[in-house]
Structures are given as structure tokens and as C-alpha cells.
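Pasting as-is:
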Amino acid sequence: MKAVILTLLSCFILSLSACEKLPDPLVPDPPQEEKNEGGDHSEETDTAMPETIKITVSGKTLPVKIEDSEATKALVAALNEASITYEAHDYGGFEKVGALGRTLPSSDTRITTQAGDVILYSGNQIVLFYGSNTWSYTRIGQMQYGSLDELKSFLKAGEGNISVTLSL
């Protein structure tokens, strides 16, 4: 019996020595270094969503304050690769519309546009409004412009086709 008790006691003592020391709840943990996998980068990454993109027509550029949506994320991803240039034409006396050359994810809702709106139509066309219309669209953003006359001049409203370049 004595041998059994000594064996159990020695096993118990061995198991205690194998345990890790428990932290003292009154002593604060030492500061931990944060691991930054993938190298030393600042908080912003190359894939950070910008607040604006640029629209250039005839050598003049306007910023577009963009929406936070799947469509704009896909557009920004494409613009990270290269600028996109397309031909746009007047339609209805209130917009310039042109095929983007690619399809973006759309989340169409019935909206009434305003002058300066940049809209995705049918997933593959960009509409630049210098007037207003109500239809189901996906909003991309809003051109930042001065007066309505300046916007119409920029878009060459009513003057035929224009070449539009989207860029970051």
C-alpha cells in the first residue's frame, strides 16, 4: 500500500512540474508585438478604396466622388490596372452614354438622377448626366463641378460624341 501511495505521490509531483506557470492576475501582461504579415505596410493598402476617380474629356478633368458599392469596387479594381477610355453620345437631351467595354456588378434601383450623376446602366454602360431622369440604375458617383453651364460645357452637351477617360 505504501508503495502505491508513493507512486501516486511521485506521479502527482511530476505532473505539477510539467504544468506551465499560471499568470498572476495582479500583474499585467507584457505588451505584445503586432505581427504584420506580408511585409512592413502602412494601414492603407494598394486595394484601399479611393474617395474619388477622375473623368477626363477634351483634356479637362473633373473628380467624381464615388459610392461605396460592388460596382465601384470593380471599377476601381479595373482602373488600378489601367485607365478606361470609351466613346459617349448624347441621349434624350439630358445625358451622355457609352459602352464601358466590360460588365460591372449592378444593383439597380429606381432613382431620379441629377446633373453630375455618374451612373451604371445595364451593367456595361456609363451614363454622365447633365439633366435628370428616373429609371433603374446603379449609382457610381457624382461629378464635382461648378455651375450647370460648366458641366454642360465639360460634357459638350448636345454637341455629339465625346471621348471619355476614367482614371484614378
